[in-house]
Amino acid sequence: YDEDDYDYSDYQPVVKQSKLDSTRPMHIGEAIERLEMSGRNAILFKNYSTDKYAMLYRDDQDEYELIEADV
């Protein structure tokens, strides 16, 4: 796979919503609570424990997955 072989200039996906829920660090439990209250499937927040930005999402089995930036 060579990324230079592909031209993405015509690729324009539709972004429905883009929002950082809070710049204040949150515990994972608070992020889950905010996610539940919002009715959405994902929340972007700053993890209090690691001080990294993280994406928490609910999958098809109503289980939570946490992805953290590695920077």
List keywords for this structure.
71 residues; alpha+beta; 1 helix; 23% strand
General description of the model:
This protein is α+β, with helices and mostly antiparallel strands and 71 residues long. It has one helix and three strands. The mean pLDDT is 86.
Helix content: 10-25%
Percent in strands: 15-25%
Q: How much is the radius of gyration in Å? A: 15 Å
Low-confidence stretches are: none
Biggest sheet layout: 3 strands, antiparallel
> What's the overall average pLDDT, rounded?
86
Shape: extended
Name the structural class. Answer: alpha+beta
The number of distinct β-strands equals: 3
Note the quaternary state here. Answer: single chain
Strand order of the largest sheet: 1-2-3
Number of helices: 1
Gap from first CA to last CA:
24 Å
Order of helices and strands: HEEE
Could you provide a short overview of the structure?
This protein is an alpha+beta fold and 71 residues long. It has one helix spanning 28-38, and strands spanning 42-46, 53-58, 64-68. A hairpin with a 5-residue loop joins strand 2 and strand 3.
What is the topological layout?
Elements: H1 28-38, E1 42-46, E2 53-58, E3 64-68
